[in-house]
Amino acid sequence: MGQSHLVVYYPLNGEFKAREIDNKQPAGVLGQVELTTGPHGETNGSYQFSGNPNSFIEFPNDGGLDTLHSITLMCWVQPGGRDGPLFNYKNSGAWGVHIWIVNGKFFNRITKYPNHAFFDAILTDQVLPVGQWAHVAATYDHITGVNSLYVNGHLSKTEYIGTTERISTNDGQVRMGVKIGDSRYFNGKIAQLKVYDDALDEVDIKAAMNEGKVQL
After folding, report:
1. 35 CB contacts (<8 Å, ≥6 apart)?
2. By CB distance 3.0 to 4.6 Å, which of 38, 72, 148, 161 could disulfide with 42?
3. Can you give the pLDDT at residue 193?
4. Are 189 and 42 in contact (CB under 8 A)?
5. Confidence band, pLDDT 50/70/90 cuts, at residue 215
6. Which residues, including other chains, have CB under 8 Å from residue 41's CB and lie 6 or more apart?
7. What is the C-alpha separation between 32 and 56, in angstroms, rounded?
8. What is the CA radius of gyration of the chain?
9. Which is nearest to 178 in space by CA: 92, 78, 73?
10. Pick from 190, 74, 184, 79: which is nearest to 127 by CA?
11. Three-state DSSP state, 161
12. DSSP per residue over 121-140, as a string?
């Protein structure tokens, strides 16, 4: 994958629970979530989020999740019909970088360090089908200012949003499923969350989305 660096990989399965695969970060804290079937039919291959304020996973960020400049966020998701955060830097208050389901669509907003100022958000044109697995990825290149969304390894949306030296990925807690103070609680399944410190291209995203595939 060229010079891109895999910052963290949380398989979110029965083997690793909410641990990073190489223990590069402290383990995530499980709220009211349950192991369930994964994107390729794996037993205990994902976590089910039930759409309530206690159904979340919180990941401590001791600096190991801070990509500083550019970023790629990706995961497998099976929407359950309720919007909410897939991975949200800063668990309450002002907004860090985040990927969500919003109006049933895949959504990404990049924010600036240190004041959490917004860039324009982007989201897919198409709704993600409820009850079906999809692989989603969001990229931001701080040099070109381009923000892109990919669904199932294919480019879905790309826009110039502006450049910045540093993005807001430094906050101490990252949440999946719930953002404190926001009533949109994600319902559905999430697996294989990966963070890179560069904007991957379509070829690299397709390769990364298949790395976690288990031969059954």
Report:
1. 13, 14, 44, 46, 47, 48
2. 38
3. 98
4. no
5. very low
6. 216
7. 6
8. 15
9. 92
10. 79
11. coil
12. PEE-SSPPPTTS-EEEEEEE
pLDDT at 210 over 90: no
Instruction: Please count the other Cβ atoms lying within 10 Å of the Cβ belonging to residue 211.
Output: 10
Give the type of residue at 138.
A
> How many angstroms separate the Cα of 60 from the Cα of each of 28, 52, 90, 171?
6, 21, 10, 9
At 53-73, the pLDDT tens digits run: 999 999 999 999 999 999 999
Q: What is the DSSP letter of 150?
A: E
Cβ atoms of residues 17 and 26 within 8 Å: no
Q: Spell out the long-range contacts of 142-146 with Cβ–Cβ below 8 A and sequence spacing 24 or more.
A: 142/69, 142/70, 142/166, 142/167, 143/70, 144/199, 146/199
Taking the C-alpha atoms of residue 160 and residue 140, their distance in angstroms, rounded to an integer, is 9
